[in-house]
Amino acid sequence: xxxxxxxxxxxxxxxxxxxxxxxxxxxxxxxxxxxxxxxxxxxxxxxxxxxxxxxxxxxxxxxxxxxxxxxxxxxxxxxxxxxxxxxxxxxxxxxxxxxxxxxxxxxxxxxxxxxxxxxxxxxxxxxxxxxxxxxxxxxxxxxxxxxxxxxxxxxxxxxxxxxxxxxxxxxxxxxxxxxxxxxxxxxxxxxxxxxxxxxxxxxxxxxxxxxxxxxxxxxxxxxxxxxxxxxxxxxxxxxxxxxxxxxxxxxxxxxxxxxxxxxxxxxxxxxxxxxxxxxxxxxxxxxxxxxxxxxxxxxxxxxxxxxxxxxxxxxxx
Length: 317
What we know:
Blueprint: E1 3-5, E2 27-29, E3 51-53, E4 75-77, E5 98-100, H1 118-126, E6 150-152, E7 175-177, E8 198-200, E9 209-210, E10 219-221, E11 230-232, E12 240-244, E13 253-255, E14 264-268, H2 277-297, E15 305-307
Parallel strand pairs: 1-2, 2-3, 3-4, 4-5, 5-6, 6-7, 7-8, 8-10, 9-11, 10-12, 11-13, 12-14, 14-15
């Protein structure tokens, strides 16, 4: 057997230890088994396992310590569980390319909300020398996960202290989701993620600005970051296909956007009421110029969709 899918089994409370006998198992999906509480240590015997999905197993509080023995594991999905920390052995998962971790909508599913974020607990095995329980003592780097391509830390209780986290070692990271947090600044190390293409930072109500993004970014979504005032778009490359800043009511400026109007595939500025009329008109003129060039020269027009809905601005007379 290579695939075992037990999705949405409401009565499943535990997985029998005999699962460790499935030596050829490649995928184990237990997502939305909301009564699941424990996984056996015998899972460490699943030497061929590549994907483990326990998403929305709300009563699952920990993964087996033997997890690190599954050296073939490339995908680990634990969103929406009560897991507050990964087992110490997880540092041996050198092939891990996709990781999702943390609660959902800022809710931890354990009986008591932890006094510190899961991230500070996470640091105890990423940075063993840091023994303090202070939320300021966060991991210096993510060297244990240097093969990661996708990292989803949305709604995981990250705080302002995370701005000092070194993500720069994730040299293969392409997709990063930091939505739903209370920090004021993004980790500065994001600028060193040379392969990052998709950055999602939605509903971060305290975030004030975004700057120094890597030039590789092709998708930027900051929906409902209600405090953000300035965004510096990465315009060093040929095009940024999608920029979504819907619901950013305090947004004043998107640096560089007026100089690259013909490079946008989708631009969503809905409910951005603080952008000045002159600023938005300047951008529309650039888009209009691109349209004229398209008509006259039959060139491909990259900007396919522009929206200023509910932004106190009419694009057309």
